[in-house]
């Protein structure tokens, strides 16, 4: 995949025309507009003024867009599925107290993949009844934490399942099984998780043996099955195929007298990173999944299970942007012009990791003609630290505010302190208010866990 922006990319204000009713289909948050200063405004807040107040780089999340996405998922299942349902947020996309509390206030549960994510969700006030604990190599300590709080633990392999059975003696622990359905999706190989060659889940030839084990382990309350076939998926057919595979296994478990009552189809709905991206809407996705599960259950002659899904990227991806301050410029004759920003691979690892493509604009020049092709480079000591290889922008000067769109998912959650850069602040904007939900790190934070042996201290 080539990191390029189309040579026909228009000025920043054009991106407002791309805003759709379904947040995952928009390049900018739903509240984006151009104000009287020709500046980008999100959630009633001028982005350039936010940078003045909070500094840059700056993650900006739009509360309204997140709430709309949550409601569309929840209402989509309520309208199209005849049984019970639950939407749980795949918090690996962006896990912090503020975001967990926000989606929780919309009635969603939380999918966590580590003890740290579990702790954050609990501290945000999420009920353990709505927390599902994933991961392919949960430690004994993490399993104990899941048992103690009473969440549902998604067992990924034999070691986890047998460790759970041993640790959970004297308790009743809710357990789901993650199974590998063998379904391929047209997405990046690193984010395909449902095909057979995957580190995740029990293989199909293990399912019968696992069911027999659970029959003989009464302290594990086997509530249902889970599968996840990948992320950034635009196709609906793989999810429809998944329903048939999972329902067949669900019926097999029921025939053995196991108390299965939930079916988790994972998440994976894609978002719009460029104008060329055309993902289904949240409404279309929920309708397709609900119909597929209902048809599979009818064919299998079983009652409808509680239907669960785990959106992450499609809840927060396009609801967030990252604002940078433009710095130096370098032109390599007959090759390219670099403009540098005050962040890079430490606040957005996806371009260097996945060759991900993004769109950009100048928040302080929304109507200026975008007629200059530049490479947006980060400030790290790495030649590969490039956010966008060929971005079409207006002419820039030091101090301009460059915005990269659709960075709400996997920006902060994959951020690092490479070169000892400070991880950025994150703010939540809503109706003209801006609240800090993650503080910008300080130099003191950087060395807080460092320890200097006495023998290495320099003589004064």
Automatic annotation (TrEMBL):
Keywords: Amino-acid biosynthesis, Decarboxylase, Lyase, Lysine biosynthesis, Pyridoxal phosphate
Active site, UniProt feature: 381
TM regions (residue ranges): none
Any GO MF annotation of the entry: diaminopimelate decarboxylase activity
The Orn/DAP/Arg decarboxylase 2 N-terminal domain, residue ranges: 65-316
Known pathway: Amino-acid biosynthesis; L-lysine biosynthesis via DAP pathway; L-lysine from DL-2,6-diaminopimelate: step 1/1
Cofactor(s) needed by this chain: pyridoxal 5'-phosphate
Keyword set includes Ribosomal protein: no
Residues with the N6-(pyridoxal phosphate)lysine modification: 92
The protein's Enzyme Commission number: 4.1.1.20
Annotated GO biological process: lysine biosynthetic process via diaminopimelate
Positions that bind pyridoxal 5'-phosphate: 268, 310-313, 410
Catalytic reaction annotation: meso-2,6-diaminopimelate + H(+) = L-lysine + CO2
Residues engaged in binding substrate: 313, 350, 354, 382, 410
Pfam families: Orn_Arg_deC_N
Described function: Specifically catalyzes the decarboxylation of meso-diaminopimelate (meso-DAP) to L-lysine.
Assembly information from the UniProt record: Homodimer.
Family: Belongs to the Orn/Lys/Arg decarboxylase class-II family. LysA subfamily.
Name of the protein in question: Diaminopimelate decarboxylase
């Amino acid at each position: 995949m080539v990191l390029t922006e189309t040579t026909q990319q228009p000025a920043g204000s054009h991106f407002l025309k791309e805003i759709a009713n379904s947040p995952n289909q928009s390049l900018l948050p739903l509240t984006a507009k151009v104000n009287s200063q020709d500046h980008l405004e999100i959630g009633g807040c001028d982005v350039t003024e936010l940078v003045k107040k909070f500094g840059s780089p700056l993650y900006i999340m739009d509360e309204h867009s997140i709430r709309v996405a949550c409601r569309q998922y929840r209402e989509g299942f309520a309208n199209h599925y005849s049984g019970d349902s639950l939407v749980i947020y795949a918090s690996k996309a962006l896990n912090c107290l503020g975001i967990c509390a926000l989606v929780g206030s919309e009635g969603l549960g939380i999918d966590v993949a580590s003890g740290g994510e579990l702790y954050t969700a609990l501290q945000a006030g999420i009920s353990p009844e709505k927390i599902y604990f994933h991961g392919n190599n949960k430690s004994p300590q993490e399993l104990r934490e899941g048992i103690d709080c009473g969440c549902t633990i998604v067992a990924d392999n034999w070691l986890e399942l047998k460790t759970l059975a041993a640790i959970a003696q004297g308790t009743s622990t809710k357990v789901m099984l993650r199974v590998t359905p063998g379904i391929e999706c047209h997405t990046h190989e690193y984010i395909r998780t449902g095909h057979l060659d995957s580190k995740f889940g029990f293989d199909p030839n293990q399912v019968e043996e696992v069911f027999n084990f659970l029959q003989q382990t009464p302290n594990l309350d086997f509530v249902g099955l889970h599968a996840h076939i990948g992320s950034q998926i635009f196709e609906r057919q793989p999810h429809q195929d998944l329903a048939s595979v999972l329902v067949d296994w669900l019926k097999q478990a029921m025939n053995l007298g196991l108390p299965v009552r939930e079916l988790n189809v994972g998440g994976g709905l894609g978002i719009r990173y460029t104008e060329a991206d055309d993902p289904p809407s949240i409404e279309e996705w929920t309708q397709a999944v609900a119909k597929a599960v209902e048809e599979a259950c009818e064919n299998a002659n079983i009652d409808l299970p509680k239907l669960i899904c785990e959106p992450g990227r499609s809840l927060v991806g396009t609801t967030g942007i990252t604002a940078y301050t433009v710095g130096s410029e370098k032109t390599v004759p007959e090759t390219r012009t670099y403009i540098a920003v005050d962040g890079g691979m430490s606040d957005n690892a996806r371009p260097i990791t996945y060759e991900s493509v993004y769109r950009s604009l100048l928040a302080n020049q929304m109507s200026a003609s975008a007629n200059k092709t530049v490479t947006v480079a980060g400030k790290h000591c790495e030649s590969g630290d490039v956010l966008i290889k060929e971005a079409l922008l207006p002419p820039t000067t030091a101090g301009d505010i460059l915005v990269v769109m659709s960075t709400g998912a996997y920006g902060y959650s994959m951020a690092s302190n490479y070169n000892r850069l400070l991880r950025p602040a994150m703010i939540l904007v809503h109706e003209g208010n801006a609240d800090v939900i993650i503080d910008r790190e300080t130099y003191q934070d950087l060395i807080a866990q460092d320890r200097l042996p006495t023998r290495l201290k320099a003589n004064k």
